Amino acid sequence: MNKTDDLFDKSLVIAEDQEEKMAKSQKKNDALILKDEYDQVVGFILREELFGVDILHVEEIIKPVDFTHVPNTKEFVLGVINLRGKIIPIVDLRVKFGFGKKPIGPNSRIIVISMNDFNVGFMVDKIEKVYYIEKKSIEPTPSNIPQTIEKYVKGVGKLQNKIMTLLNMKELLEEGGGLN
Question: If you classify domain 3-174 with CATH, what class do you get?
């Protein structure tokens, strides 16, 4: 077994049964329209709140590993890791959003985001699961979102019995998502 195999979070499984159920509820020739009607989002917890990122930006999800601290970086940058030859900055989203620090626990995970040939890892409290959110149930950012995270929110997804804050990866990465 390769040492990097231990990094992967094998507990996160795409809800294939949910996808299959949705496909069966559609006519067979309409099953391909699912992508037009639903967003697939990786849901995760920060400070007991549900957040989500578009699965298309998620490179992988790994268990926390030792990172190398980089001097003179912003408070929310935990350090960098070497992931299969790529140097990836690790950002503590709790600190970035002003939620305060929390020790890395057994459920903590790093979501490695890839966008425009740039990779960054976001430390989160816990991965929930992959959600399918109907595009028509996504609303613009509410006015009561705290100013500390308002610019990082692209909308709010209404699920059956909860609400998910959907993050704007472009804004997060452009404004200090990495080492700058």
Answer: mainly beta
